[in-house]
Amino acid sequence: MIIASFNANGVRARMPVLQDWLSSRRPDVLCLQETKVQDADFPREVFERIGYHCTVFGQKAYNGVAVLSREAPAAVRMGFDDGAEGPEEARLVAVRLGRIDIVNTYVPQGQAPDSEKFTHKLAWLARLRNYFERFYLPETPLVWAGDFNIAPASLDVFDPEKLNGAVGFHPEEHRALGALRQWGFHDLYRMRHPHSRRFTFWDYRVPKAVERDLGWRIDHIWATSALAERAMDVAIDMAPRRADRPSDHTFVSAVFDTTGF
Prior knowledge:
alpha+beta
């Protein structure tokens, strides 16, 4: 089973990249973030024509998450489902495919460490920890994928000394991510590639960021032990970031041996 993740930075703008990648790689599941469309405007017909069911949770112009899957989900959950008042940003969607649960998240970026948005990001991550505690067990065959907007360690940023304390590489974010890891997750890319310095995001605003490899590894596929031990390969595909009209992110994918699932 192949599960992949991609921050599209606008799904409609990224259709050529998406169609090419799906046609060549044929994943069983693709988790999308930052789709930036309301549900009614999601281009589901295009994906359905090439064999994917579309589970979407969107909003106009911002955020938005979706799961494309070859198999129709047996269950779907949108958002935290924790009874909080007010509208919820479209940042979390969960599906069940057979015995496997997949949670796709677009974690808030956080803006700056001294901002309210950074405080909101930390609260959102704590809320996510509670979400996993409420709906799953560490023994559940569970994949958590998406744009986490956090580089976990020094190997995951192009200049760890310069970036230390910046949003996306801040001690408080690392503590919040550590609490999620301790609940029962494994970082599959780092598990399979313990010494590799590979990135998934290169900021548009940095001149020649891709050519100079000034990147961050902030897009992830994590899993509980039941699936982590079945992860055969985990890869980051650089080619789509060099394509015409790319996202500022690229695809990460994991191959699982799901024999018996």
